[in-house]
């Protein structure tokens, strides 16, 4: 199994949108047994995939009160399961600090290794105890970056944090792109090799439909962008496996 974290230092950059759509691509386009693990207490991924109806116990898995496999539920999408988030995750950073187990999440991920081919980790924003756990558990970290100086600065901070530690590689993705904006066009010129996800009304429709773009508009520009990004991720994972 390969674990792909969707992470950003900043909020509001399209992190959950990427997580849900990439999970759909893995399960549907690549026919992978896929799990989306929502670690963000805002539980946006959980909502979009129809979860969030049970009792609040998302944090219990980290104290070993519940096995991670017991929290995984099927979704309406074939081959895609979900470990949902809830309000109990608001204290997760403090819990990780108190446990003082640097690889607790990595060990829980490893327990699911034979059940799935791909795992998406939807992470809360910020450099926190949870993000440190994610960086030890993931095989690849996908970082959505809005084409703006502040968002690029946030990426640089993450790169500096990871630098020299031998940790998992980063894959920046230009998110919420409007090519008509001069600032966006200039950012794309600075990083021509980064994948691009456009700003599109079809992406905003996800919340109303509670479904990934590919499920209702796969041929749209947004749907094609997520599919192309997923192909790039699969190629990146294949290269890493050969090393």
Largest sheet data = 8 strands, mixed
Reported by name, the CATH topology is: Rossmann fold
Overall shape: globular
The H-and-E topology, N to C, reads as: EHEHHEEHHEHEHEHEHHHH
Top CATH class? Alpha Beta
CATH homologous superfamily identity: P-loop containing nucleotide triphosphate hydrolases
Contiguous uncertain segments of 5+ residues: none
Specify the structural class: alpha/beta
* Strand order in the sheet with the most strands: 3-4-2-5-1-6-7-8
Cα end-to-end separation? 16 Å
Overall number of domains: 1
Can you characterise this structure?
This protein is an alpha/beta fold and 243 residues long. It has a single domain, classed as 3-Layer(aba) Sandwich (Rossmann fold), CATH 3.40.50. 44% of the residues lie in helices and 16% in strands. The chain has helices at 15-29, 44-48, 68-71, 92-99, 104-111, 129-137, 149-162, 182-190, 201-204, 206-209, 213-217, 221-242; strands at 2-6, 34-38, 72-74, 80-83, 118-122, 140-145, 170-177, 196-198. The chain has an eight-stranded mixed beta sheet, with helices on both faces. The model has no long low-confidence stretch (mean pLDDT 91).
Give a nutshell description of this structure.
This protein has 243 residues and is α/β, with parallel strands linked by helices. The chain contains 12 helices and 8 strands.
């Amino acid at each position: 199994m390969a674990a792909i974290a969707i992470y950003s230092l900043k909020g509001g950059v399209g992190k959950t949108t990427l997580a849900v759509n990439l999970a759909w691509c893995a399960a549907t386009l690549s026919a992978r047994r896929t799990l989306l693990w929502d670690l963000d207490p805002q539980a946006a991924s959980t909502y979009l995939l129809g979860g969030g109806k049970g009792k609040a116990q998302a944090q219990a898995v980290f104290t070993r009160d519940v096995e991670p496999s017991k929290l995984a539920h099927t979704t309406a999408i074939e081959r895609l399961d979900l470990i949902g988030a809830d309000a109990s995750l608001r204290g997760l950073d403090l819990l990780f600090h108190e446990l003082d187990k640097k690889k607790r999440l990595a060990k829980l991920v490893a327990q699911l290794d034979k059940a799935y081919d791909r795992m998406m980790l939807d992470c809360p924003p910020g450099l926190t105890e949870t993000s440190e756990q994610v960086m030890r558990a993931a095989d690849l970290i996908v970082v959505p970056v809005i084409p703006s100086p502040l968002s690029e600065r946030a990426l640089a901070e993450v790169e500096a944090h990871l630098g020299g530690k031998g940790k998992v590689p980063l894959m920046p993705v230009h998110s919420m792109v409007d090519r008509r904006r001069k600032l966006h066009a200039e950012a794309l010129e600075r990083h021509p090799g980064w994948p691009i996800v456009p700003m599109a009304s079809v992406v905003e429709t996800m919340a109303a439909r509670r479904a990934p773009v590919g499920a209702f508009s796969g041929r749209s520009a947004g749907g094609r962008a997520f599919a192309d990004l997923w192909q790039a991720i699969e190629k990146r994972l294949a290269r890493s496996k050969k090393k």
